[in-house]
Amino acid sequence: MRKSNSIWWLVFSILVLIAFLLMYIRINQGLSFTNLNNLVGWGLWVTFYVYFLGISVGLFLSYGLIEIFNLEKYRDLGRVALYSSMVSLLVGLFFILIDIGHLGRFWTVFINRNVTSVLSWELHLYVLYFFVIAVLLFMDNLPSSWKPTNEPKRIKWLCKNRKSIIKYITYFGIPLAIAVHGGTGALFAVVKARAFWNSAIFPVIFLTSATLSGISAIIFFIGFFKKLKYSIGSLRNLSRIFFILLIFDNFLVLLQLFINYYSDINDRVAFINLIFLGDYSKSFWIGQIGIGVILTVLLFCIYFYSDQKFLYLWLSSITCLIGIWFIRMNFIAPTLSVPLIDGLAENMYRSNESFKYTPSIMEWIYSYFIIISGTIIYIFGINRIPNVRDALFRRKIKGDDIEQNI
Amino acid sequence: MEDKKLTRKKLLITSLLGTLGLVAGELIRSSNNIEEESDKDDDSSVKYGMVIDLDRCIGCNACTIACKQENNTPPDMNYNVVIEREEGEFPHPKKKFLPRICMQCDKPPCVKVCPVGATKKLNNGIVTIDYEKCIGCRYCMTACPYGARSFDFGENYNTPPNSFESTTYAEYDQFYKRDKTMPALNGVRKCHYCSHRLAEGKLPACVTACLGKARTFGNLNDPESEVSKLASKSWSLKDNLGTKPRTMYIGEWKEERGKRCVNQIVYGG
Ligand code: SF4
Ligand code: SF4
């Protein structure tokens, strides 16, 4: 035990040191080392922020359904989902934190509110959402029976009413989670200056992608944590939900692309051209369509028509998660690359190149660092949260056949 | 059993009431603020506006230089951009120019989206940015349909800044100096009709510098002012978006948003 503690100390010390260094550079140089400019003002970090927030909401919604419908067989998956959703939310929020120009002023969003700003509402919802997850995690880990010897009296009440409190908070949490990610979609959808975003279906796409990424993440966890037990029946159902959502999500994306293309409106067609044939076509055809749709469906079909070998479903969930990242990426930077006024970009930067956006190496380094730190914190937490640890390493599932994966 | 039911009910009602209270409180607080800030003296005698005559613009960029000098703006800070476009085929090609500044919209989307209310619409028509409040999220930049806002990345033409670059300059009636502690750094900036000059009774620098006398500036509330007369026959960029710009145009300009982008890709131009 002591040995493992000192390893964690070492790991966290290294993380903190690197974080200090990166923050030092970031504070000193501002955003000058990014490839953002006055035309494409949001890039890689905003993409990651939306992406991780989506995963968080997807995982939370999965947890919520399991809790509300009392799906005992999925309970362990639900617990892992709830915990993962919290870490994913934190990672997402970190991305938005380093993206803002004045890092030190981030807290002022809670004192200088603007009632007409979707972002202002969103930031408050994020905090509420975080607390909901934290309380649920806490409540879930309370013992169901109260032992008078070691718990204070107040805890007695909580333990006694644990189940119903969890249920009511979950009832509150589900619409909250929907508002959190629907709101993130609305952040973009309300911007009338960017024709492609300005559609009511945009928040819906965000929500569907989020739910899909949540289910994909659960399938990923089943494969990743080899000791996580699950029943064949529950996996079969999960795979079905996964596939239906995959089709539905891509149907919505297709609809959005089609309607924009069909409109013949210059800004909209310009966007379609940028991703179909222009600067972002690789990211669209290889990332979004190649990996996210074709490879994912192919792997799923292999899984389905072979003797349901889990490995293929697992790989399919990974390619799907990559594909969703590309959807986010392709929907954000290319929209900003469409000139607002014909000739504006050329006259601002004296070059045609300026409306292309490719993330800089430093942007990637910061992103990797945040993701790696999130993963380490995630692994650290697993061993410290009793129910998550039990779900991943010990507990058995009643009923249905139990199978250890891969 | 009875006891439990009561507890649930209590919990539900308390949390519902709490949420409602928070929302209602916030709405009341904010609506009070809005009234206080924009409607208070809406009968103010001055409402600034500008009309730019495109037929008089010769594309000399004197306005751009004057603006850069007046506001001491760093590289890629585009308060004023003169967009050039070639129209027509040989032997009758034509150069067209469109000077673009902040439109000081009457319904400014940038003000709506700012999460901290750092950007505001003043009663005199000018849309301001509070550099001390702005968190640099760049939401306003994505929301402005005219690309009128620029982020201050902290770059200078010279490192370290030369004597001109490090002089003190004024924006929104405040004085600033370009160094590491400069509040505008890492925030968003834009044209403000040279509000500090207006306070001294002067015209915006671009209007004074314009060679072709293409820019007319003044009080739109005064029906006898030149700018009001010109405004009555003017048009606005992207009128359909409902932003109600205070910077207006006369003269011909074909709006071809995104067309170059479309053509360039489709025809490899
Ligand atoms: S032109 Fe852009 S920055 Fe200026 S007021 Fe209108 S929306 Fe805001
Ligand atoms: S960049 Fe500044 S002014 Fe613009 S929306 Fe964000 S906080 Fe407001």
Automatic annotation (TrEMBL), chain A:
<feature type="transmembrane region" description="Helical">
    <location>
        <begin position="237"/>
        <end position="263"/>
    </location>
</feature>
<keyword id="KW-1133">Transmembrane helix</keyword>
<feature type="transmembrane region" description="Helical">
    <location>
        <begin position="80"/>
        <end position="103"/>
    </location>
</feature>
<feature type="transmembrane region" description="Helical">
    <location>
        <begin position="7"/>
        <end position="27"/>
    </location>
</feature>
<feature type="transmembrane region" description="Helical">
    <location>
        <begin position="365"/>
        <end position="385"/>
    </location>
</feature>
<comment type="similarity">
    <text>Belongs to the NrfD family.</text>
</comment>
<dbReference type="GO" id="GO:0005886">
    <property type="term" value="C:plasma membrane"/>
</dbReference>
<keyword id="KW-0812">Transmembrane</keyword>
<protein>
    <submittedName>
        <fullName>Molybdopterin oxidoreductase membrane subunit</fullName>
    </submittedName>
</protein>
<feature type="transmembrane region" description="Helical">
    <location>
        <begin position="165"/>
        <end position="188"/>
    </location>
</feature>
<feature type="transmembrane region" description="Helical">
    <location>
        <begin position="39"/>
        <end position="68"/>
    </location>
</feature>
<feature type="transmembrane region" description="Helical">
    <location>
        <begin position="123"/>
        <end position="144"/>
    </location>
</feature>
<keyword id="KW-0472">Membrane</keyword>
<dbReference type="InterPro" id="IPR005614">
    <property type="entry name" value="NrfD-like"/>
</dbReference>
<dbReference type="Pfam" id="PF03916">
    <property type="entry name" value="NrfD"/>
</dbReference>
<feature type="transmembrane region" description="Helical">
    <location>
        <begin position="283"/>
        <end position="305"/>
    </location>
</feature>
<feature type="transmembrane region" description="Helical">
    <location>
        <begin position="312"/>
        <end position="333"/>
    </location>
</feature>
<dbReference type="InterPro" id="IPR052049">
    <property type="entry name" value="Electron_transfer_protein"/>
</dbReference>
<keyword id="KW-1003">Cell membrane</keyword>
<feature type="transmembrane region" description="Helical">
    <location>
        <begin position="200"/>
        <end position="225"/>
    </location>
</feature>
TrEMBL record, chain B:
<feature type="domain" description="4Fe-4S ferredoxin-type">
    <location>
        <begin position="93"/>
        <end position="124"/>
    </location>
</feature>
<dbReference type="GO" id="GO:0051539">
    <property type="term" value="F:4 iron, 4 sulfur cluster binding"/>
</dbReference>
<dbReference type="Pfam" id="PF12797">
    <property type="entry name" value="Fer4_2"/>
</dbReference>
<dbReference type="InterPro" id="IPR017896">
    <property type="entry name" value="4Fe4S_Fe-S-bd"/>
</dbReference>
<dbReference type="GO" id="GO:0046872">
    <property type="term" value="F:metal ion binding"/>
</dbReference>
<dbReference type="InterPro" id="IPR050954">
    <property type="entry name" value="ET_IronSulfur_Cluster-Binding"/>
</dbReference>
<feature type="domain" description="4Fe-4S ferredoxin-type">
    <location>
        <begin position="125"/>
        <end position="154"/>
    </location>
</feature>
<keyword id="KW-0411">Iron-sulfur</keyword>
<dbReference type="InterPro" id="IPR017900">
    <property type="entry name" value="4Fe4S_Fe_S_CS"/>
</dbReference>
<keyword id="KW-0004">4Fe-4S</keyword>
<dbReference type="Pfam" id="PF13247">
    <property type="entry name" value="Fer4_11"/>
</dbReference>
<protein>
    <submittedName>
        <fullName>Molybdopterin oxidoreductase, iron-sulfur binding subunit, putative</fullName>
    </submittedName>
</protein>
<keyword id="KW-0408">Iron</keyword>
<feature type="domain" description="4Fe-4S ferredoxin-type">
    <location>
        <begin position="48"/>
        <end position="77"/>
    </location>
</feature>
<keyword id="KW-0479">Metal-binding</keyword>
